[in-house]
Design brief:
about 45% strand, single chain
């Protein structure tokens, strides 16, 4: 995933990424980890990215 300009962000799934400033929090939903964005979207986190997301988002 290419980051646009100087915007810091995370690739959380092969087809999903988000800017750090747009992340509200993370959420565990049964077996899946999700990122909740400030505008209410839930972005799935792949198992291979889960540890990185937990470190960065909490």
């Amino acid at each position: 995933m290419k980051e646009p300009g100087d915007t810091a962000g995370l690739q959380v799934h092969r087809s999903h990424g988000t800017a750090d400033a747009h992340v509200e929090r993370s959420k565990q939903d049964k077996r899946n980890l999700l990122i909740l964005t400030r505008d209410g979207f839930e972005i799935p986190v792949s198992r291979s990215c889960a540890a990185k997301v937990r470190r960065c988002v909490g």
